[in-house]
Amino acid sequence: MITIDEDTTIGDAFFRAAETYADNAFLAVPANPARVYGAEGVEISYRQGAQCVRRLMQVYAGAGYGVGHRIGLLLENRPEHLLHKLAMNALGVCCVPLNPDHRPGELAFVIDHAQVDLVVAVESLESLLRSALVESEKQPAVVRLAAFEQTLQPLAHPAASTTPEGQTPASVLYTSGTTGRPKGCVLSHRYELAAGAWYATRGGLSSFGEACERLYNPLPVFHVNASIFSFFCVMLKGNCQVQTDRFQTSRWWTEVRESRATVVHYLGVMVPMLLGQPASPQDRNHAVRFAIGAGVEPQRHATFEERFGFPLIEIWGMTEMVRALIDNQAPRQVGTRAFGRAQPGVEVRVVDDADINVPDGSDGEMVIRHSAETPRKDFFSGYLDDPIATEQSWRGGWFHTGDIVNRAPDGMLHFVDRRKNIIRRSGENIAAAEVEALLQTHPLVDQVAVLAVPDEIREEEVLACIVLRAEAHDDVDAAVRTLFDFCNAKLAYYKAPGWVWVTDRIPTTATQKIQKHQIFPQGVDPRGLVGMRDLRNWKKRGAPAQA
User: Fold this and answer.
1) Count of alpha carbons within 13 Å of 451, Cβ hemisphere only?
2) Which helix (H) or strand (E) holds 486?
3) Cβ 226 vs Cβ 243: under 8 Å
4) How far apart, in whole angstroms, are the C-alpha atoms of residue 195 and residue 233?
5) Domains of the chain and CATH, by start
6) How far apart are CA 438 and CA 418, in angstroms?
């Protein structure tokens, strides 16, 4: 394994890896005839990757790019994204991944906020970029990926240095957030390498071999999971990242088998989709040893593992700190939302609204730090141009994650919900995720999002936004009654939806994360919208009525 210290930079680590593991596979794209790139599959060795990165470095450096510059990459999930990032980082340039699913206004915000000097884009996304630049104050240079080496123009003010340090910014990644504008998380070279080294050395059920693993990651490279957490994990141990364009239920197992994946990454939303496929004798015809992810619904956790024959190992991490906590030691606590225990280097407290520790077994916000001596070590460097938000998140010397967890007496941490997704009804705290997880198991439900709406008597009430499956459309009222009775029978009466809104679509990100703040127009009380059903009179204390 490539060793790192406080001063190691990404370029240093990569070129040492390229020399050590020269002929091993570094990056792979699984074959897919429907894909516009790499239709027959692509495999790049460490030697080939290093040759490409050095060539890109010459082009960037020749145009004057170096320490202090930021470059936006609008390259979808293509391997070129990772190769360009390596070349940029080796020169001290900061990478700003751009989301191809953004609308022009959203893209314009990132371009302006990050003050990017250049955008490298694939031709198919150039019209999106041009539309964004119409709304943007910043007017960076734009170059097509296909013509990058021939058309990159010299900067009027070239960089004074092309020699980064460990704390030089390597990336600015934008968090999706639940309200307001996204924040830009500044991640240093040290942060990104430390995250990869941490993941590569967790051991237990998530042990990585050296120069032998193939990690299949269907998640977007404009997020921390694929571009940093898994990417630097595989790089430091001479392994291969298999980077597909996106998650597709119908192609998942084909790509996993054909790519010879030994490790896969998942999100909780993928699990019911894969379980929904017809059972097949091929279900265990794969080389996967374990999967790493978060958010599997408790009701489906064991079912998935029994059917497909490998553990879904739950982790906790976030863009601000992705040295993930992980439930990788036997015996695991399957189906309990367990994601591991505090470890040296990631200290944890569970606190109330006054930042006072709550007893084990009680819900509270998880706050974290590296250690008392160096609380911010290997965390993000801060929110870009927002020191107030940065210091607010670090109040009291602990980073406030915004996640509600429950720590058992044995130290195991269990995820409850995002703090902003807690519904406060008549003095009771209701986790939206709990109601969502239950509704998602019902055969009438295709997609669901649960959130709080104001209530004049009870402070807040539970609102379920539901996309019904086709078979429920003939009698929507009957479907709503069925779903209410289902919740009322499974949960405490106050947790059942007091409002239900049946819709055709719930907005999501590229990773299928529901965007709750985009469901209703800002400032609009959803209770008055057409199609909203008031079920509050159905909620009665005591035993549920029979459906």
Assistant:
1) 21
2) helix 476-490
3) yes
4) 8
5) 10-340 (3.40.50.12780), 341-423 (2.30.38.10), 426-538 (3.30.300.30)
6) 17
What residues contact residue 263 under an 8 Å CB cut-off, 6+ apart? Answer: 208, 213, 214, 215, 216, 288, 289, 290, 291, 292
pLDDT digits (tens, 9 = 90+) for 454-472: 988 888 999 999 999 999 9
Which neighbouring-strand residues pair with 490?
none
Q: How far apart, in Å, do the first and last CA atoms of the chain sit? A: 59
Chain segment 496-543, per-residue pLDDT in tens:
999 999 999 999 877 677 888 889 988 889 998 888 999 999 998 765
Question: What does the block give as tokens for 529?
Answer: 């919208």
Residue 278 class from Cβ within 10 Å (0-12 exposed, 13-18 middle, 19+ buried)? exposed
Would you state the structure tokens that stand for residue 499, as one six-digit string? 């409002």
Closest CA to 437 of 449, 452, 422: 449
Q: Are 95 and 89 in contact (CB under 8 A)?
A: yes
Angle at the Cα of 400 from the Cα atoms of 396 and 403, rounded to 5 degrees:
150
Q: How many residues does the chain have?
A: 547
Is the pTM value of this prediction over 0.90?
no
User: Which residues touch 455 (CB under 8 Å, ≥6 apart)?
Assistant: 425, 461, 498, 536
Residue closest to 545 by CA, chosen among 468, 500, 487, 499: 487
DSSP state of 355: S
Q: What is d(CA 326, CA 296) in angstroms, rounded to the nearest whole number?
A: 14
Structure tokens at 485: 């009775």
Q: Are the C-beta atoms of 261 and 242 separated by less than 8 Å? A: yes
Residue with token string 């190769």: 83
- Burial of 134 by CB count in 10 Å (0-12 exposed, 13-18 middle, 19+ buried)? exposed
**Residue carrying the six token digits 């209701």:** 430
The SS3 of residue 459 is strand
Q: Distance (Å, rounded) from C-alpha 90 to C-alpha 84?
A: 10
pLDDT grade, residue 69 (50/70/90)?
A: very high
Partnered with residue 186 across adjacent β-strands are 172, 382
Helix ranges (DSSP H) in 348-475: 387-393, 432-440
Q: Could you give the dihedral angle defined by the CA atoms of residues 478, 484, 487 and 488, in that order, rounded to the nearest 10 degrees? A: -120
Would you list the DSSP string of 230-261?
IHHHHHHTT-EEEE-SS--TTTHHHHHHHTT-
